[in-house]
Write a structure and sequence with these properties.
Elements lengths: L1 E2 L4 E2 L5 H10 L2 H20 L6 H8 L1 H9 L9 H30 L15 E7 L3 H14 L3 E7 L10 E8 L2 H23 L2 H9 L19 E2 L6 E8 L3 E9 L2 E20 L5 E12 L5 E7 L4 E3 L2 E10 L3 E8 L8 E5 L5 E5 L2 E11 L3 E3 L17 H6 L14 E3 L3 E7 L5 E7 L11 E7 L7 E6 L7 H11 L1 H15 L5 H19 L14 H11 L5 H26 L9 H17 L6 E9 L2 E9 L2 H21 L3 E9 H5 L7 E9 L4 H15 L10
Parallel strand pairs: 6-9
Antiparallel strand pairs: 1-2, 3-27, 4-5, 5-26, 7-25, 8-9, 9-10, 10-11, 12-13, 13-25, 14-15, 14-24, 16-17, 17-20, 18-19, 20-21, 21-22, 22-23, 26-27
Helix pairs in contact: 2-5, 3-4, 5-7, 7-16, 10-14, 11-12, 11-14, 12-14, 14-15
């Protein structure tokens, strides 16, 4: 076997094997692998990993989503090709170490004392001087000085040749900074160790069990206890990383290992009992601390070990690290009241459990399935933005754009401060029809003042999970409830109440001396009120059920375009006045006093009219409002057995040492050739010694120049301005 600059060249064996060894051990191949790993790591950083396929479809489209899934770009660090590249990098780097280490070790032991005296004159840094001592004495003195300075020294005595070409003398050879080349070995060994650690802690061991140990990925649903053994991994599995959800007061002993096409269940050697989940918040309502008080139950011995798990402060038991990952709902109980949003709907109450069984409801002609999706006790919103409620953000989301813009001096930097406020609990649920189509709803429990002084109940709805919630703002009455809105809508749907409201309006707005004007006003008010209530269509074939949209469609058909603006203003004033009478009639029916015609009442009326108009587009007959709840929290733990962690730590340590040695340790070599002065000048051999010094360094710097000057003064008693110095 011989060494080349391209790789190990093997002279025996099959041609393909020799070519493969030379390729794998070449530096160019290793650099190519490192480049691919860097590119893959960039993709893995930019592209969110382990997201549901629907998220990629919504963001990039079906074609790119399928391409990402086929190339495993959604789980790069566990992809077969990424692990294969790591394996080849381990082989290539190991062969590079095998190729160069013997040469490095030999070079560390070699002083190169056989260098010719004439060759010293070719060095860039050299010096010559005459010493007043014999060569052997000078050699021993110089050697001792170098040893005291940390150099390794070797003395060589040379005899004169018979042809007279080479004189007798002493060669002092010294070297220092050998750790520079050891840094090469340490850095390359570090790469090997880090890759091995990554292979150990990756999915390679788990995949090997699916390939060779009869395990398979589970793609179904149901309870964890019902999953067959072929989908479960042994508690003695040497390496794994999964998640486990444990509710307060409950226990869990099976972790979920997400795979690209399903899940695997990992049995733990212990069970985790969650005694208490603790959440501390900042004054803004943002979470400050997540912590779990747990008890670990050993499944073999029955030993109970209490522990506290916080973010960045994991617990360890039987070689398994337990991290606080996140939190979720553990089966909270909620009480909901159905608020009618359609004329045929009736109010009723239901109770359910978050994530538990659904409830079949029948209201009017609709038969729906109520699914209890989520309970959020804390909801922090930014009220500095007018569209803050369009996102439906919760405390676990981060406004990355604001964080970046607040720290960078970009031209589009926004200086608007955040106004964060906790707006209370909310309930998330789904209403699924008979065809299986579901809409998602998010309703807040208490009214919210969005900035205009009129508190409103926020009723959110979205068709798809990737869409933001759109909110219907229902005003709260003086009792802080939606009853006033419900009464007003019911009164508006009653023809007799509408007629009474019109008559009250005519009595206040018309002149008794002009009955013909009163009749025209009555016709206009009656028609406008009926259109708004949705009791008559705006035009033939109209699909709009009422609200301001019906008014707009009616004017498009019946009013010339040139007169629409003036006529619209008159019609809006009439309708607002009549609706105010409808509002007071609904209050009288409930035994409440009429509202005065002041600014506060007008604000409530305006919001009520807008809510009634928008309610015609609300896709559900009822809105489920939360009246009470009993929160049960759950912790989401990440459990990991990572034997490669220590290997990676060792690799990182070696990498630091290796890089430091290669960058900051200079390899230096020094030669001093000493001959009797008479051998050079032809005089008496005892008159002195002619000394020639050469200095070599792997990286020439100002420090190396200073060291050379120091060595000249110390060894040869030369100053910088003395002759014989180069």
């Amino acid at each position: 076997m011989s060494v080349s600059t391209h790789g190990l060249r093997v002279h025996r064996g099959p041609q393909m094997l020799r070519a493969a060894v030379e390729l794998l051990s070449s530096m160019r191949f290793a650099i190519a692998l490192l480049t691919i790993i860097c590119i893959a790591s960039i993709i893995g950083t930019v592209l969110k990993q382990h997201e549901p396929i629907n998220n990629y479809i919504n963001q990039f489209g079906p074609f790119w989503a399928e391409l990402f899934r086929a190339a495993r770009l959604d789980s790069i660090y566990s992809a077969w090709w990424f692990l294969l590249i790591l394996l080849f990098l381990v082989i290539s780097t190991t062969l590079c170490i095998v190729r160069n280490t013997p040469r490095i070790l030999v070079d560390l032991k070699t002083f190169k004392e056989d260098i010719r005296a004439q060759s010293l004159k070719a060095f860039g840094q050299r010096a010559e001087n005459r010493l007043g001592e014999t060569p052997d004495v000078a050699a021993n003195r110089i050697g001792q000085l170098l040893v005291s300075g940390g150099w390794k020294v070797k003395l060589q005595q040379r005899e004169a040749t018979g042809d007279g070409k080479h004189a007798a003398g002493w060669m002092v050879a010294a070297r220092a900074g050998g750790a520079h080349k050891l840094g090469y070995i340490a850095a390359h060994s570090a790469i090997v160790l880090v890759c091995i650690g990554g292979l150990l802690d990756g999915d390679l061991v788990v995949r090997a069990q699916t390939w060779f140990n009869g395990k398979s990925v589970f793609t179904g649903g149901g309870m964890i206890a019902d999953v067959p053994p072929q989908h479960r991994l042994s508690p003695n599995n040497p390496t794994f990383r999964g998640n486990i959800l444990v509710p307060e007061g409950g226990q869990g002993s099976v972790a979920i290992l997400n795979q690209s096409d399903g899940v695997l269940l990992q049995e733990l050697p212990f069970s985790i009992e969650l005694k208490k989940f603790i959440v501390d918040y900042y004054s803004t309502g943002m979470p400050k601390l997540f912590a779990s008080e747990v008890v670990l139950h050993d499944r073999e011995t029955g030993e109970q070990v209490p522990a506290r798990i916080e973010v960045n402060h994991p617990a360890s038991y039987k070689g398994v690290e337990i991290y606080q990952s996140s939190f979720d709902d553990g089966g909270s109980k909620v009480k909901l009241k159905a608020v009618p949003m359609a004329a045929a709907a009736k109010s009723f109450e239901v109770e359910g459990i978050i994530g538990g069984p659904s409830t079949e409801i029948t209201n009017g002609k609709d038969k729906l399935t109520l699914e209890y999706a989520a309970l959020r006790v804390i909801n922090v919103e930014n009220f500095a933005d007018a569209n803050a409620m369009g996102s439906g953000a919760d405390v676990r989301k981060v406004d990355l754009r604001h964080d970046i813009e607040s720290r960078l001096g970009a031209a589009n930097k926004t200086n608007k401060p955040k106004v964060l406020r906790n707006i209370g609990p909310s309930i998330g649920y789904k209403l699924r029809d008979a065809a299986g189509q579901a809409r998602e709803y998010q309703n807040y429990m208490v009214p919210v003042d969005t900035g205009d002084g009129q508190p409103v109940f926020l009723l959110g709805m979205r068709e798809k999970p990737e869409e933001p919630f759109r909110y219907l703002r229902v005003p709260a009455d003086e009792q802080g409830s939606m009853d006033g809105f419900v009464r007003m809508r019911a009164a508006l749907a009653d023809p007799a109440t509408r007629e009474r409201a019109v008559e009250r309006y005519i009595a206040k707005a018309s002149d008794p001396k002009r009955p013909e004007m009163a009749e025209q006003l009555r016709v206009s008010a009656t028609r406008a009120l009926a259109l708004f209530a949705g009791s008559e269509p705006a035009k033939a074939g109209a699909t709009t059920a009422g609200g301001w949209q019906a008014i707009a469609e009616f004017m498009e058909v019946n009013v010339p375009e040139a007169e629409r603006e003036r006529a619209g203003g008159v019609l809006v004033r009439i309708l607002n006045d009549v609706l105010f009478e409808v509002l007071n009639l609904s209050r009288e029916g409930a035994g409440l006093p009429a509202l005065p015609n002041d600014e506060k009442s007008q604000a409530y009326l305006t919001q009520s009219v807008l809510a009634i108009s928008d309610a015609h587009f609300y896709p559900a007959p009822v809105a489920m409002m939360m009246t009470d709840f009993t929160q049960v929290q759950a912790s989401v733990f990440q459990v990991a057995r990572a034997p490669g962690k220590n290997v990676v730590y060792l690799g990182c340590l070696l990498l630091i040492v290796g890089i430091f040695a290669m960058l900051y340790v200079r390899e230096r070599r020094l030669w001093v050739w000493l001959t009797p002065d008479g051998a050079v000048s032809g005089g008496d051999a005892s008159s002195g010694t002619a000394a020639t010094m050469a200095f070599s360094v792997n990286r020439k710097t100002i420090d190396s120049d200073r060291e050379f000057e120091h060595l000249k003064r110390k060894l040869l008693a030369l100053n910088k301005e003395d002759p014989g110095t180069t």
